[in-house]
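re the bet — no i am not wrong, look at it urself. input seq straight from the record:
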Amino acid sequence: MTLDKVRQRAESDAKTYGYYLNPDADFLRDLLEGLKKNEERYGYPSCPCRVASGKLELDRDIICPCDYRDPDVAEFGTCYCALYIRKDVLEGKTPIAPIPERRPQEKQVRAYAVAPEVGVEKPPEAAKAVSPEPSQVKKRLWYCRQCGYVVYREDPPYVCPICKAKREMFAEIVVSASASG
């Protein structure tokens, strides 16, 4: 699947529902690359803004366009990851703002419990350091306290990809063992 095909599919879907794609070219490219990567990884284009389990049955609600897109666009002018936007947002009449997560907590926890290992992002300065073995890397759940973005990785990102909040705005989500059963 090429990036052009991913974009064509998203544009077609946007047009069908009266939406537009995010006008920020770099941000849009990053979202489309995330969709492409997820489709290559899992066989379906799960949302680039959410952690997928890699199991279709658990991820159906976050296959792009996700189940939450339409209510988010209706209420806030954009979907959760801001790939799809309304016309008033496109025209600059309504600013893009953080959106609370609509995906139910139990679905998120279930996905995190079975999410496949997909590698660990490292900051540029860490590239010089010796990387630990994958089995030694402990991934954790982090959420942005400003917009609710959730990520599963070793450390929180330096900047939230959704609202651009700094790393200090991320907090760890601790899931108890009894919640996964």
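see?? The chain has two domains: 3-90, 105-180. told u. also The two ends are 36 Å apart (CA to CA). so pay up
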